[in-house]
Amino acid sequence: MTRRGIREGRDTQAPDAEGFDVEEVLALVNDGKGPARPAGDPVPGRAGARTEGAAPTHGPRTREAAASPADRHGHRHHATPWPEARTVAARAARSQAARRAPVSVTLGDALGLVLAGPLTALTDLPSFDTSAMDGWAVAGPGPWRVRDEGVLAGSTAPEPLADGEAVRIATGARIPPDTTAVLRSEHGRTDAQGRLHPTRDMSHGQDIRPRGQECRSGDQLLPAGAVVTPAVLGLAAAAGYDTLSAVPRPRAEVLVLGDELLTEGRPHDGLIRDALGPMLPPWLRALGAEVVAVRRIGDDEKALHKAVSRSSADLILTTGGTASGPVDHVHPVLRRVGAELLVDGVQARPGHPMLLARTKDEQHLVGLPGNPLAAVSGLLTLAEPLLRTLSARPAPERYGMPLRDEVHGHPHDTRLVPVVLRGDHVVPLHYNGPAMLRGVAAADALAVVPPGGARAGQRAELLDLPWATAGVAACFT
Questions:
Q1: Do the Cβ atoms of 208 and 182 come closer than 8 Å?
Q2: How far apart are CA 463 and CA 39, in angstroms?
């Protein structure tokens, strides 16, 4: 969080104040009977107050700049609608993704990657007839005389069985030639002469896994584009693979801006702890990226220009500095490097001053607001679709659930509100202001609340938080 993103105040149960920053409150006033106030004007009684997302007077060339209709006072909201912004981000890196060459990775390094080609079986599975149970391999009808030796998994090829003969066998062991079936340990008994008798009826081939039961050599096990999960790693190993051909992870670099940020200890003397430096790298890894660097730039335009122009990452993420104040250097730096702005502000709360730019033919920059929850909004709105395209991950199925409680909305913008899943509905969480992480830290998902809000019982689209469904350990490896 940077000083340009600090919002004083405490989240309360009062619906009229819940989760709104200064500009959002003003917008609600403007939408009602209160006097209109331009989006960038300070709040009375708060000298010098700045609002997120004040549009810069001049900026890099803009290709995507959708404007919503003017409100009744004639003020226009120049920003890309939230659904369109996500679409632009997903499409922005298509040509870049198409030029990325597959990489060969060991099974130990493949978790979370996407298969660059089909996974085909290198052998029959199983590659020989095996026992599905502990028991006896038997030949012909019983009773059977039992051999002294047994057959264990991994042992050499056993001797054939003669009719009326049985041999102890372990699960996964090779079936001796001429075996009729496997008699489970709990389904057999021996008499005083040591002869084996079945205690229930048997069928031919019972509890034998025949060669090729799961697949034959050359069968396609999974198509290109499948995400490598732990189960896929197990299947690949069983099918004979040591390495996999996969789409490489997008390389991401995080640039943390702000002179007021502390990296340790408690906030003091006007300095605050950096929440985004610790939070963004693991979140980016959860989205499939390789984080190559986290750099703390401060409020230094020259240092920011140097870092952006020298970066070789596929995606640069900046935190804060996306508005138009005296220490907001992202737009000036984008102009200096000749970047193409694809999204310059989004109709979303929190996080409306987020941006997306193409800095090079095969590089993009996502500018996140400095407020922590606003940065999360920008991450899921712009960075997630772009990284998904670069890593060739499939788009998640859209789904929604009814809201237990009413959620007040912004008159023009989409709201992203932390929620928890409770049975067949979701419960909106408090502490959901732009500068707050308390709500999202307890959340299972973010609810997409359309302009104007949502009533209790209304179905809301949900954006899953990766660790809520996959588990923290699985998510960040």
A1: yes
A2: 28
How many Å apart are CA 333 and CA 212, to the nearest integer? 60
Cut 0.90: pTM above it: no
CA distance 429 to 447: 10
Question: CA nearest 340: which of 100, 99, 93?
Answer: 93
Distance, CA of 274 to CA of 435 (rounded, Å): 12
What DSSP string describes 268-301?
Answer: BTTBEE-SHHHHHHHHHHHTT-EEEEEEE--S-H
Token digits for 474?
Answer: 């699985």
- The answer to whether 320 and 368 have CB atoms below 8 angstroms apart is yes
Among 436, 426, 430, CA closest to 468: 426
The answer to whether 344 touches 52, Cβ cutoff 8 Å, is no
Q: To the nearest 10°, the Cα dihedral for 166, 170, 175, 178?
A: 10
pLDDT digits (tens, 9 = 90+) for 308-360: 999 999 999 999 888 877 888 999 999 999 999 999 999 999 999 999 999 99
